[in-house]
Structure formats: C-alpha cells, structure tokens
Design goal:
elongated, about 25% strand, Dihydrodipicolinate Reductase, domain 2, Rossmann fold, homodimer, 3 domains, Alpha-Beta Plaits, ten-stranded mixed β-sheet, alpha/beta, six-stranded parallel β-sheet
Chain lengths: ~450, ~450
Amino acid sequence: MSKPLRIAVAGLGTVGAGTLRLLQDNAGTIAARAGRALQVTAVSARDRGRDRGLDLSGVQWFDDPVALARDAEADVVVELIGGSEDPAKLLVETALRAGRHVVTANKALLAHHGTALAGLAEGVGRTLGYEAAVAGGIPIIKGLREGLAGNRISRVYGVLNGTCNYILTQMAGELEGAGNPQAGQNFETVLAEAQRLGYAEADPSFDVDGIDTAHKLAILTAVAFGCEVDFGSVYVEGIRNVSALDVAYADELGYRIKLLGLAQLVDGAVEQRVHPCMVAKELPIASVAGVFNAVVADGDFVDTVMYEGRGAGSGPTASAVVADLIDIARGTILPVFGIPAANLARLPSLPMGEHLCPYYLRLLVRDEPGVIADVAAALRDESISMESMIQRGRAEGEGEAVPVIIMTHETQEAQIQRALARIAELEAVVEQPRLIRIVDL
Amino acid sequence: MSKPLRIAVAGLGTVGAGTLRLLQDNAGTIAARAGRALQVTAVSARDRGRDRGLDLSGVQWFDDPVALARDAEADVVVELIGGSEDPAKLLVETALRAGRHVVTANKALLAHHGTALAGLAEGVGRTLGYEAAVAGGIPIIKGLREGLAGNRISRVYGVLNGTCNYILTQMAGELEGAGNPQAGQNFETVLAEAQRLGYAEADPSFDVDGIDTAHKLAILTAVAFGCEVDFGSVYVEGIRNVSALDVAYADELGYRIKLLGLAQLVDGAVEQRVHPCMVAKELPIASVAGVFNAVVADGDFVDTVMYEGRGAGSGPTASAVVADLIDIARGTILPVFGIPAANLARLPSLPMGEHLCPYYLRLLVRDEPGVIADVAAALRDESISMESMIQRGRAEGEGEAVPVIIMTHETQEAQIQRALARIAELEAVVEQPRLIRIVDL
C-alpha cells in the first residue's frame, strides 16, 4: 500500500467536523477503497479552545488558514471556510501554487472564480475538487463529468436549495399530509419555523432569494456544457413572493411550486435561470420533498437521468468531500470542469426577455365593473393569449379586493413584463401583480 | 493530445450499433473530455452482410469474436455478445490475457464469474468496466464505487428490470391514468402487449422470472459491500403470480407493487433478494414508472441517494459503455469492485427463511362456514399475527369462491411458508395461496 494521503482542513464548522469524523469512523473502509490511508495532518479554525468532540492530537494547528495552505505538511488542502473572496480565495490559490490539490465545498467561490481557479489548478498539474459545492451528498459533478461523459447535455436543472424546498413543501403541506398545521400558511410563517428548526439561517436571504441556487447552477452549467462559469448571466428570482394563495391555486391546477435552477442550450446560447416554477405534479422533480435536493440531466444518448438525495448537512456534505479525497488518493485527476480550462467555451447568454413559456399570473383587484376588461386589454395589446382565468366568489363589500388568476399560453418574458407593468398601474389593481413561470420538463 | 484509444467491439446488435453511433456522433465532445480520440479499429459480428447503417470502412472485421479479442489492434475490447459462458467468457479472458482492457454490458457474465474475472483483470493490470451491465444509462457503478466511496453502505435496492416495471406499471394503469385500457388487466395480457411493443422478449422468462434483476443485484451487492459476487445466494421470485386483484388491493391499501432487487447487511451477513414488493405509494421508488430503472443506496454519512433513468435501450446502454471507455482513455483504472479482488470479503448469506417482514396474503376460498376459522388457526399455530383482513361481498352461489386478503404483522418467512402450505391443503381453498412481501424502505 502506498504512503498516506496527507490532508489539511481549513474550517472546522459543521462540514469540517463531519469530514474529520467520517475520515475517522470509516478509516478502514476508505483505506481499502483508496489503496492508501487518508490522514488529517493539519487543521485551521477560528477558535482553538472550542470542544468539537474531535481527537486532534498529533494534528498541526494553524490559526491562519492561508498559512495552513502554504506551510502544512499536506498533499491536499480542504477549504471549508466559505465566501467568494479572501481568505477562502487566497487560501485556495496559495494551496494550488504550493503544489497541493484542493477540495472545497465553496459554491460562491467556484461561481465567481471557477474558470480562473480551474486554469490555475491545471497549470500546476493539481486538481480542484468541488463535489460538495453542488447538491451536498449527491455525486452529481462526478455524474455529469464522468458518468454521462459520452453525451452532449442539452439541459440540466434541479432543486438545489434545501431551505427553499423545505419552505415550499411545508407551505404545500405535502410533508405531513392534510393534518399539517403549516399547510396553507404563508412564506413568513414557514420561514420562521424553518429558522427555529435550523433549516434556515438567521439571515435567510442567500437561500430564499435564490443566490445559493444560482451559485450551484452556474457550476453545473460549466460542467454540463463545457463552458466558462458565468454566474453574472444567471437570472435570479427567489421565493419571497410565493404566497399561500399561489400554492393553493397551483395544487388546484395540477402543479407544485418548486424553486428550480435550470440551464439549457438554445441555438448555441446558454440560458441560466433560477425562479419559482410551476411543475406538473406527476413529474418526479415535483415529488422532491423537504430538505432533499435533486438534479436532472438530459443527454442526447442517455435521455433523462435524475439524482436525488440530501443537499446539505454535515454527513452528506462530508461524504462528497471525502469522495473527492478518495479520487485524489486513487490518482484520478481530471480537468476541473471536464475539459481543460483553456478550452472552455465562452458561450453567449440568452437574455431573459427572450424566454418563452406559459405564465401563471396572480392579481388582486377591486371587485368592480370594467377591471377584467382593462386587464384583458393590457394582455391583448402585448399579443398575450389567455388559456384560462379563475375569479371565484365575490368580495364582501362592493369595491373590496378579490384575487384573479390568469394562465397564459406561451408568451415571451419581455411581453408579459410590459403587460404586467401596465396592469400594475390600473387603479383597481391593489397589489403588485405576480407571475410564476410554468415549466415543461 | 495523446494517441487515440483503439477500441474493438464484439457484437453489433442494438447496443453495439448504438455504441458505434455514439462514438461517431459525439466524437468531438468525447475527444475533448477524454483528452484523446476514441477510435473503433475492429468489430466482430455474426453477419457481415447486414446493413446496420454504420460506416465500417477502415475497420478490421473478425468473424470470430475470440480472434478479435486476441488479434485486433486495440487497447480495449468491448464485449456485447451476452451470456454467462463462452464465447463471451472466453472472449473477455482472452482480451485481458492479451493485456487489453475490457468493457462489457454483460450482467450474466459478471454475476456468475465476476470475482474471478476481476482477479484476472487486476492481475494483468487492466480494468474490466461494466457500468452498462446494471441499470443501463444510470451511472450507478461509478456512483457507488466512487461517488459514495466514503460511506459504509448498509443497503442497496432498486427497480432493475424495465420489462417487469413496464408490466407492473401498466397493470396498475399508472402510465395513462384512469382511461388506460390495460389498467386492471392481468399479467398475461399486459405481457403480450409488452412483447408486441418490443419491451419484452419472445421468451420473457429471463426478465419476468427475476433472473435479470438478480444478475444486476449480485453485481451491486459486491460493489456496495466490498464482497465477492454471490449470485447463487440471491433469493429470486418473479412477477408471474402478481394478479390484477393484487394490484387493485395494493392500491386500496396505499401501496404499489414493484419488482425490487434488494441487498442489505444484517449483522455481518448479506441478504440478497428479488421478489415483488408492496411499497408505500409516497416513496420515490413507488413512482418509478414504465421502462425506467432506479437504484437507491443507504450510506452511513450520505443517508439516502436515489438514481433514476432509462435501464435499457440502445442509447442509454451505449452511454454507459462509452463512459467506461472515456474513463480508460483518461487513465482512470480502479479495482473492478472498488477494492482489489483478492480482498473482497466472503460474507455469509442470510437464509430467506429467516427474513422478517409483514406479508400480504391472497386466498381464493369457497364461501362456506368455517373457512376463515381454519385459515386463522393455521396462522395462529405459527404465531402469525393478523393486522387486517378484507373479505368483501358474497359469492353468487353458495360454495363459490371469493378472494380473502390478509395483511400480517411482521413475521418470519419460514413461518409464513409453513402456514401457507397448511392453508393450501384446506379443502375450501381453491387456488394456491399467494404472498407479497411488504417492504419498509
């Protein structure tokens, strides 16, 4: 058996501690599979005194993670600090320049600097593993980059953020059936409960505003299509505006609402978007519940493949980190995004305004004569064709507000946005009109 | 770029032709990913004259596949002949002994001779790829052997045969909803339709009797648990006895019937079984419809991961074959079952008689006094506890037969089999009693 793979870990939060625990608990199995032992030789974290329930005897301690990247006696540096800029970025660059492989769970870093870091890693003949950065424990990077490597991928999409999926699932009351007290509750209420349970951060904006999903999507896009990482071109819209009413109407119309990250090739251009979607209930992706993640890839020969599993948490993320470490120990060193960074295509991005799909529109209008005619005229003037409309019951008093739901036929985003801007200015429309895109998967 | 990887393909049926087409259609993408071209240099098939729509100019032709394995100018031999014995076996052995890598889609070969062939391959420093042998296009071998390599896997199971899943889905009428004319039809009728559509072979026994699923399961077991392939210990029961009545009662009781292959570690012993299962409708595996396959793995850190995709067909199987070829071109050479063949454990197998689960029992009894008492006594004498019983309506004439459905609490297989043998001998029981195991996933 070869000599041990020496590993330095920067960051001992949930994932870092989970990684050390996994390497310790399954040391024998891992050594048998990797052909050599995986040995943690150095760690770095903010507070040396804190009890993490880990045996760190014989492990070199660094207060400064960048010093660890430079000086630790290690073949690989595992970056679990997070954030798209320094110290994480400097740490990764320092480790690569010192000739060490890097494994990271940092989606923000990869989304912002993936192409450059891949070029750096390949230039020094080292690898940059990031299985843990996308969809937690699901080995989707390996799945795309190796398992489906024979295919031209035309589309990749998924439920990539467990917090959002937990909130949407709870709002729909799917998790515990009709008896679920949260079914029918609004976003804010369910978010507060998710925060209490530890499924959402105190500041939830990174998750609920779709940014985390967009980071992951930008990485998936590069791997799937062999193009440069282009986070700036991702259209991003979160779930804050999804209301209990939307969830109820979706159910009635045969849909579930999911926050999807979706990337596809359209005539040589890349479309990347993150937004709430109405997806037909019968689709497998519609059944992905709670904190689970799922990724679907469409390949020209394999057709459709779906991966589902836990997208976050100490154990699943550690599983992905260690899979990368075992690859390195086994000597599997591949181009970071599947083809050499220098050859990644710079593809044009499709403007969101050109996106075509049917739309669900929700208006809150005062119940008075002529309103529907004005709304219909605004749609007609943008050549938007209605598929159906639901206006049910009457307001308590004349002039009070009632919801109106409109489903359109396929329409261009720019047109629907112009129509909605005009509708929003109607005096009888008492709330910003909302839209949810209906996706055909 | 390095020199091309030279490939010899034995067998130009559906999968062989698909593989050549994939290598041709996606040659540029594949070369970019593999870092070198993948070039077919030799082929072998039974009928040289047949038009397969493939350009074979410049490709060496062999009438004898074993001669191809020995003499072709190739780095890799792709075996797509099938069957657990010669010529497939001899061809693979010959290719390995000649120092060539082998890629195969042959589950029967691996199930019967996997351990020995792995030893042979590793002994000569070559690899034996078999991603295409299990679950078609789903990269599950890579998923288990690499993606989840940090985990101790406690259980792996799946829908592994598209023919059976198509038949069971059609019987349940899930595919096309209530209007499906095949819903409520019996096994034989749906099988005939599946044969007409090309989803089932003229001789369907390999599929519907569970043997194909058992082959795949035996392979998954070895990869998941790091043990020798032990096809002989797989308990196998097919779907011929699943009736329209069972499908209807399953639906009423909240279940779907799926043919699963399931392997788990129980106190250091391996349980491998293939049989129709009642699975709760809400489970993701219950929604795997038609010819799709799915595999679920439970790991100690990753928790549960599920893969779903097409389990057969020219394109998906070719996708898996080519993924193995790209791995070889990239230089990724791993032990065949994840750890060296010499270190694969020889684990004891758990006898089916010791298996514990709740059971669904279907009896057809003459509608006369005392029958239920006799049935209940047979169960009681084996200490089998009933959870519920359904006997609905009365027979047209006295003494005619009516179905009786019994759900038991958790029971040992040996006990239920003894009780059923006794029940079968009751004079009022007019048909062999049937059982379906209820699995808790």
